Amino acid sequence: MLEVKNISKSFGDFKAIDKLSFEVKIGDVMGFLGPNGAGKTTSMRVITQFLKPDSGSVHINKINIADDSIGSKSLIGYLPEGVPLYQDFSAYLYLKYVAEVRGLENIEENVNNVLTDLQLQEIKNVPIETLSKGYKRRVGLAQALIHDPKILILDEPTDGLDPLQKFEVRKLIKNLSKKKAIIISTHILDEVPEVCNKCLVINNGKKIFEGSPAELKKRKGKNLDEVFRELIVPSKKKTKSSPTKSKKIKSKNLNKVLRKSPK
Fold first, then answer.
1. For the segment 163-190, what is each residue's pLDDT rounded down to a tens digit?
2. For the sheet containing 181-185, what is the strand order?
3. Where are the domains of the chain?
4. Which fold has domain 2-75+149-260?
């Protein structure tokens, strides 16, 4: 469905993405992992055509998105980290506007479907500016779903949600994955085995792991947090400290050491 082939992107001397490749098919939920500044958001912006890659290509159904920009965009639903919501609109009016811009048929039906799926019916007529962060996040997710895209690219979809809301959104993502290819960028590692069947870890714009969450965890039999840290920050050989100095500090209490320190 979605194939990313050796994409690279630089901003001046800074290389944000370095020959990154991966594939996501219908039925896949891929956890896109990496520290801040690793290149996740830039990669998603290239796939969604907010940015052009310096090299490499992105294909949807074996068609280069550069050859069919409008058609490929209609197949993608994108939830960016900060959704540009119209604050003076209600959730209902905003989603109706998005549906009209996309030229959808059955606008009322599409809007009501996503309002129901995201549990937004009770606040649909409330101005967005007065909504909590969690509700705003769900309105943003609704706009990504309103045209029933085949590919979903979600940047921190559960950010700002309470535990119950997170559970409902994860359940929705699982259900959507039956007919969609989904990419989720997240810093909540516990979320990965809950909803993802594969994961991709990048650092400094380069791929450092690709496989299932179970394979990632099995690398060293540790939890995902520990494995993630070891992938991102390779363990350095411990330098042996001077045994003489260590022995001195251990043999004396802190007050004695401080009294003998030079002023």
1. 888 888 888 888 889 999 999 998 778 7
2. 76-79, 151-155, 181-185, 29-33, 198-203, 206-211
3. 2-75+149-260
4. Rossmann fold (3.40.50)
